[in-house]
Amino acid sequence: MTLRPALLASLLLLGASTARAAGRTPYGGELRLAHTGPATPAVPSLADTPLEATLLGLVSRSVCQLTPEGQAAPALALSMSRPFPQVVRLVLPSPAQAQALVQAWARLSSPEETSPYRALLFPLRDEGRRLSATGDTLELTLAFPWPDQERALCHPTLAPPRSSAAALGPFSSASATAQTLEARLSWPPGRPYLDTLRPRATDERGLTRLLSTHGTQVALGVPPDPGSSTGAALYATYLAWSPRRVPVDFRQAVENALDREDLTRLFVRGPAEPMPHLLPSALMPKAAGPRPPRPPVPAGGRQVTLLYDTDNEDQRAVAERLQVKLHDQGYTVALTALPRAGLRARWAKGDYELMLHSLLLPPVPGPALAVVLDAAGRKDLLGVELPRIGALPDAAARDARVRERALVLAPSLPLLPLYAQGLALRAEPEVGGLVFDAQGLPVLEGVWLAPAPVGGSGGRR
């Protein structure tokens, strides 16, 4: 039996009281997991809802994981260190995985890439496009001081694609469609407690039925209620527009029409909160500000098209609500649904008028601001803002600087924050060790099943 390191011990602290009473946390058993998500994309940069990131992370994990306290601890990587202030050294399980990770990151940071998550690699020299591995070791040289680089590398979208030779997670499957995941006994942080995990996709009605009949032990994507747990609300949705195609007074028209509290409460499912500022409240505490004066409603006749994600039901409902509210401001809004890959491709080309943009932000203010600035089409600001932030050695000072700049920059960006969401989870009583990491994702490799009472009919199998 593999002894687990301090990282996983800290992750399981909240759920280990029953196990301690029994003397040790039990290994073994099969966990039935139901969820409401669509088929998870194989490309991590497109699997960026909290639910999709959780499911993909079972079989492909980024080089590190953020503990609930926000500290980076190795996951895919065997170790992370800073031999020099401007160098981050990663040791991977094998030379093949080191090389495959180099290739995955080079694709993400290429000029043709259609993902705003490339901003997480911006502080690297050449933005990570010319990385090379020496055996199983990868050294990342920073272009400027950036103390938050290790924590940025923990983001789920920086995991290798499922099909990559570098893909490695706490569980393994025989194929992309396999219904049963097996514990990876050689998982570097320590093998999962479970032997197997059986995911099952269903709709909301099916999820409710499985919960009521005890047909599943863990449900992901459930509506929040007193019996559910919720991760940090870091999945942020914005309304983006093209300054070249939309009138300059569009921002004011949206602000006049928009009630974020109403929008979030009535049209967004699951745990969500209004987002009045550029970053969610988990990263940027709410600050009251004066509402801009309302100008006259513009004349009618302005026609625009709003793009949204086909697989995101919340985006569909919000798009329809914006269509109604903007009509009162003189805009006729046509709605067009696109697959996420197509949506990101249109974003990268600037080929849109209006677009709903949802992003899984890092739980660290600096890297989160970098992603948002890139998503706003202002990659030019990264080279101005990030070096000034990174020059501050104190983490609290960096975070304060980020919040200050977010307030200053927000009015000039063609990006309006709407709401932020977290992932809700409900579990049966026999499931122990369930905690969320700093990214707001459940740590399923730390789950264990309580043994059945002696002579009882309950159990874990």
Automatic annotation (TrEMBL):
Residues 1-21 form the signal peptide. GO terms for biological process: peptide transport. Keywords: Signal. GO terms for molecular function: peptide transmembrane transporter activity. Gene3D superfamilies: Dipeptide-binding Protein, Domain 3 (3.10.105.10). PANTHER family: MONOACYL PHOSPHATIDYLINOSITOL TETRAMANNOSIDE-BINDING PROTEIN LPQW-RELATED, PERIPLASMIC BINDING COMPONENT OF ABC TRANSPORTER. It comes from the Bacteria. InterPro entries: SBP_5 (IPR039424). This is Peptide ABC transporter substrate-binding protein.
